[in-house]
Amino acid sequence: MTQAEGAPFSVAIIGAGIGGLALAIGLLKKNVPCTVYESASKFDAVGAGIGLGPNALRAIELMDPKFRAMYDEVKVGNKSPDRVHEQIEILGIQEGFGITDDWHGGSVSHPAFERSSAHRKALLEIMESLIPPGTVQFNKRVIRLEQKSPQKVTIVFQDGEVVQSDIVVGCDGIKGMSRKVVLESRYPEEVPAKYNNTYIYRGITSMEEAKKRIGTYAEDARWWMGKGKGWAMYPISKGTEVNIVAFIHDPDEWVGEQATKEVTREEMFSDFAEFDHRLKALLDFVKPVRWPLFHHPNTPTYYKGRICLMGDSAHASSPAQAAGAGQGLEDALILSRLLGLVRRTNEVESAIQVYDAIRRPRAQAVVQESRDVGMAYFFLHPDFGDDLKKITADANVRLPKIWFYDLDRDLKLAEDSFNALVRYPACKDDVVTVSIAETTTSVPSRIAT
Ligand SMILES: Cc1cc2nc3c(=O)[nH]c(=O)nc-3n(C[C@H](O)[C@H](O)[C@H](O)COP(=O)(O)OP(=O)(O)OC[C@H]3O[C@@H](n4cnc5c(N)ncnc54)[C@H](O)[C@@H]3O)c2cc1C
Fold this sequence. Notes:
Layout: E1 11-14, H1 18-29, E2 34-37, E3 49-51, H2 54-63, H3 65-74, E4 86-92, E5 106-109, E6 117-119, H4 120-129, E7 136-137, E8 142-149, E9 152-157, E10 162-165, E11 167-170, H5 177-183, E12 194-206, H6 207-214, E13 222-226, E14 229-236, E15 241-249, E16 261-262, H7 265-270, H8 277-281, E17 289-295, E18 303-304, E19 307-309, H9 312-315, H10 324-341, H11 348-377, H12 388-403, H13 407-423, E20 431-436, E21 439-444, H14 445-448
Parallel strand pairs: 1-2, 1-11, 2-7, 4-13, 11-19
Antiparallel strand pairs: 3-6, 4-5, 8-9, 9-10, 12-15, 12-17, 13-14, 14-15, 16-17, 18-19, 20-21
Helix pairs in contact: 1-4, 1-10, 2-3, 2-10, 3-4, 10-11, 10-13, 11-12, 11-13
């Protein structure tokens, strides 16, 4: 496709993670030319699993039905037929998993929810296959972004190259440089990610080894909970492997860089002293590396001029709801559709403005809720304490709001808002707040009325 056949402008995407690649897939489907600049030398998925809820699956289906079909080929759910609609079973970390204390497990589930997870590598391979070769340029670390003229952004790379683009989307992750460019002059306190008072350990093992240590508990997604501690585990890789994430609450500040910290195996074991022996046995497959969880609970805007934020650079979230990447996929759907509507370069700003109005309230609410749910899962939520029934009931109210969000309605709202802004530029500053599902957002008043 040449540029002339598609949009009259091109998009530069910084970062080839889930967010950046999804945006490229969505844009290419709408004939909007784009280039993805990635600092790494190749695609590199962290060795871990990822769960996608119905909202994320709907987003990828709307972006490209082939994307959804390919994901369906690699996904895996729970093995037990009676747990197909369950996100997690909640158990206790203590010896006996709480069953001897009369707790027989809580179910976070919904009849319309279908559990689905995959290995991140499998997801990235699918996304890579949907993007023409050459679209992603590796070894391209962006070190500076400047918008000197109203219509062009200058991108400066570490290797000395300088290119111009009509719009830049920072999909460069939680520590990405684009966040600083967008926020520093107006909201400097919101540039750095905030510590979520949690560190995790991660591991993957074969289903066979996991079952030797914990039996059929390994076959379905579960979250074992205790005071300030937790252990989440679920099948990936078509059920041949198991993904483990163990959570430790840390009331202190994270000392030093926002980076992983190696510890001895003894230090790691000391974090799990009160756990059931079957979970402790699985520590054989967990790396003695503490991974601090940071997030972006407040992001007052997702753009400055023609530079905008998407995915974790905009709204990195703690993983208690397994919803962070899903929000990046929703962003990619809305932004790609909006940019697909642009017919003259001076309409780009309207697309960005509508993207911000529609996506920011929803994504930021998910970040805030994930923090809250994380505290509940640590028995630290003031409303629930260690009452597993209340914790389960609360999760069963919150999660469906994420899973069954009406993306089709957001797409319609995005299109209508964009058309109104382009037709009536005077209403650009004239925004009102309307209710969208469980969140609120601002759209041009001519649409809201
Ligand atoms: C433990 C854990 C479990 C999770 N589980 C789930 C889950 O089950 N479901 C879910 O939906 N979400 C989950 N998440 C969240 C999810 O992992 C993230 O939301 C998602 O991976 C973010 O993708 P991204 O593309 O925005 O950022 P990233 O994956 O961080 O990608 C950013 C990319 O930008 C590149 N880059 C950075 N700086 C530059 C630069 N200057 N120049 C060029 N390139 C650059 C990086 O190399 C990288 O490739 C989890 C998160 C954690 C921590």
